[in-house]
Amino acid sequence: MISHRFSRFATLITITISVSYALSGTVLLTTDEDGKGRDGSGHVVLCDVGSGARDTIVPGNVRGACFSPTADQIAYSKAGKLCICNLDGSGDREVTSVATSTDAVTWAANGCLYWSQGDNSIRKVKLDGSDKATVYTTNYKSPIIYAKASHSGNRFAWWTPNLTVRGIDITTSEGEIFYGGGCRGTVSPDGSMVLRNRAGHKQFFIYDFEQGLNGELAMFDVPQYTNPVTGNTATEPCNAHRFSNVSNDYIVFVNEWRFVAYVFNIRTGEATLVGPGLARDFNPGPSVQRLAAPTITPSRGTFVDALEVTITTDIDNATIRYTLDHSEPTAESDEYTGPFTIDQTTTVTAKAFAGDQTSFTAVKAYTQTASEAVLDHIEIEPTGVEVVRGGIQQFAVTGYDQFGNEMSTDVEWSVSGGGTISADGVFAAGDELGGPFDVTATVPGTGISMLSSVEIVEASLRVTAPNTGDGFALGQTITVEWEWTGAGEYPGQVDIELSADGGLSWYSIVENSGSIAPADAGWGSLEWSVGPLGSEDISPVAEEVQIRVADYVSPNDPGMTGLSGVFRIAETIDAAVLPRASMETDRVSIGRRAGLLCIAIPLGGNHHVSMVDMRGVTIQRLQGRGPGEYRLCAGLTPGCYLLRVTAGGRTVSRKVWLAR
Q: Is 620 exposed, middle or buried (0-12, 13-18, 19+ CB in 10 A)?
């Protein structure tokens, strides 16, 4: 049930949440190409809710994205750049450089883009790249994450890794407003409401912006999800809530167990299941159909004395109209009749008009300089970084001319070892520790380059209990212990999860809050009474069970996630504590022969042999009878594996380290 307390309603009304499939509009999605779930990055996709049709607009490595207020363009962050493009992907251009950690962007109606990048500040820039500035810096001890701005650019809401939602009106001196504990905070386009997700991820609240925690307007339960495989219906945790940038009536969020997106109408309580992906924004109106944007030349952005500008279009019988003051061209703007000359720094904005149709917008900024701007040097971000085995790191470059102004430049990437690096600067670490390795960005044909470095390190979050080979029964207590071996205090919170199916599904075993921070009394140790998992009451009984202590924000980041050994959970205590063969009597020998892993078993009776990696995934399973020798697959990746032999009611477990 949900209760509305909006002042615009004369009386309190109660509405039952229902899942709807009749919604029309367009959802802006990103895919999860890097495997980080709700905090992942990937392609920008437009999804028509009614038909389900999907079009990829921007390929790869995008994290934050939103519609323009008129829903005819998109702003997004990618590889250290803040960009905008039309809905068809045309007119793609860089607005400014940003940190690679940029997590959210808002296109406000005041003609500015606002973003947060994981530090203590919110920043802005005009659409032409000018007036780049920090608009707010918090004194709170925790950084600003996933900030969203109102269309006025005066009000902001965000989430902190300390699990609080906060907001600020920069036009007043009253300080930050607190909306309670939880995950994700977002402000409505008109700045009147703030939404926060509850820490347990199964409810969310809407507050009056000005009243903070005392101004609760509504509480919603997340919609129930029906598993298409089992047919079971249950309430599952949702996260990454965000107000539409086009309408005050809609929010978007994701089911974080299934990675499927929803659009939610806060007026009616209807939730629409969109399908796979992370929803970034929603336009409830019809998809904007526009003609192709005009072309503005020359392409270079600087000049010395004067510059002749030409605007062209391929649209038959179209009239081009343009402005020189950053404003959007209308049917009343100056008509383009031929090339014109500019003699000062100018932004040219153009649209084509044909009958009752208009084109997407073309924008080109030209900067007057004392002499022709040329690339002077580049800077690389980050300048040096540690990456865990199997992890990824985005590198980005900013170019500067001889006057110190930013200028767009293309580079070629290379790395001296430790992994591979893509054409757009994404480094993927290999499995071997080592380094530092040189990461080089080179501007082709100029001799200009810049070095950074990367070192491949072991994960710093370690699970020390339970251990490989342990056994537990339903109703018993498992003590989970972990430690952080990295520098300083662990930079966030963790969730404790259990998998009973080889790592395919993970279920939180932390009650209520869903996370534990270093400052909490429970940091480092958790006791869990063995019982059903998740809202579907999944049985934890299995021969191969594993626990992971996962970073709350980035649960799939190998550097911020620790895995326990593989243990078992049984129905009864007797089954959980079956006697194990001793080191003196089992005499299981392990070796490699001709590239194969060989296990000699002297025990009689039926045998079951399994090889499991430290993620809990079974690599190979064999069975036989009587004493014998078993040979497991060749080509195993170097690393740690668990070998388990079951015979005559006894289980022998060994950790095996394979080197090249």
A: middle
